[in-house]
C-alpha cells in the first residue's frame, strides 16, 4: 500500500511551493537537471506516449538567443534564472511506441493520422510539464513556469528541422523568498468540484 507523503513533503510540493520570479545566485548542476527528467518521465501519459522533450538553456549565449523571443516582462526573469527549461512536444513521439508500449502495435494507432498525433502530443506534453514542475520541486528546486514568448520564433530558433514544438518555459533554481508576492487566491473545493 502506498504511504502518504509527510506534511513536510506535501508542503514542499504544494503549500509552500510558489512561482518564483527572482533568483539567488546559486548554480544548478546538470545531474540535478537529469534527475528532474528521470522523475517526470515516470508519470502516466496516454498509451505511455511520453511526448515531452526538454531543452535546458544554461549558457549566456543560449539565453541571448532566447531573450528577444520573450515578452518584455519575462526578459529579466529568464536572464536572472540559473536555468530555463524549454518544454516541448514531439510530433514524432509515436515513432517510439514500439519501445514504449511493446507488443501492442501502438504505432499503428497514429500512423497517417496527423490530427490524433498533434492532439495526443500536445495534451500529454502539457501533462508531463506538470510532472516536471513537481519533480523539480521534490528535488528542492524552485520553479517559475511561464508562457509569454513567441512560440513560432522559439521553434525556428531552437527546434528548426525537428518535430519539436515549444509548449512553455520553466525557470529553475533557488528562488529569493524575500521577493515573493502574496499568493493569489484559489477557487474553493465547493465551487470547483462536484460529487455525484
From TrEMBL:
Record's keyword terms, sorted: Flavoprotein, FMN, NAD, NADP, Oxidoreductase
Cofactor names: FMN
Presence of the UniProt keyword Lyase in the record: no
GO molecular function, one term: 3-hydroxypropionate dehydrogenase (NADP+) activity
One of the Pfam families matching this protein, by short name: Nitroreductase
Top-tier EC class: oxidoreductase
Annotated EC: 1.-.-.-
Domain Nitroreductase: 18-174
Signal peptide start and end residues: none
Family: Belongs to the nitroreductase family. HadB/RutE subfamily.
UniProt protein name: Putative NADH dehydrogenase/NAD(P)H nitroreductase ACFSM5_12430
Taxonomic lineage: Bacteria, Pseudomonadati, Pseudomonadota, Alphaproteobacteria, Rhodospirillales
Amino acid at each position: 500500500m502506498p504511504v502518504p507523503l509527510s506534511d513536510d513533503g506535501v508542503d514542499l510540493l504544494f503549500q509552500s511551493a510558489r512561482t518564483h520570479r527572482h533568483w539567488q545566485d546559486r548554480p544548478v548542476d546538470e545531474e540535478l537537471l537529469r534527475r528532474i527528467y528521470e522523475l517526470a518521465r515516470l508519470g502516466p501519459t496516454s498509451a505511455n506516449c511520453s511526448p515531452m522533450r526538454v531543452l535546458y538553456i544554461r549558457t549566456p549565449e543560449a539565453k541571448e538567443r532566447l531573450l528577444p523571443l520573450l515578452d518584455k516582462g519575462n526578459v529579466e526573469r529568464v536572464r536572472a534564472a540559473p536555468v530555463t527549461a524549454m518544454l516541448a512536444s514531439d510530433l514524432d513521439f509515436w515513432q517510439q511506441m514500439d519501445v514504449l508500449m511493446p507488443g501492442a502495435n501502438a504505432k499503428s494507432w497514429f500512423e497517417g493520422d496527423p490530427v490524433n498525433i498533434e492532439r495526443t502530443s500536445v495534451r500529454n506534453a502539457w501533462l508531463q510539464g506538470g510532472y516536471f514542475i513537481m519533480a523539480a520541486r521534490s528535488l528542492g528546486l524552485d520553479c517559475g513556469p511561464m508562457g509569454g514568448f513567441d512560440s513560432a520564433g522559439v521553434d525556428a530558433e531552437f527546434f528548426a528541422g525537428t518535430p519539436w514544438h515549444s509548449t512553455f518555459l520553466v525557470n529553475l533554481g533557488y528562488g529569493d523568498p524575500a521577493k515573493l508576492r502574496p499568493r493569489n487566491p484559489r477557487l474553493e473545493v465547493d465551487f470547483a468540484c462536484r460529487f455525484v
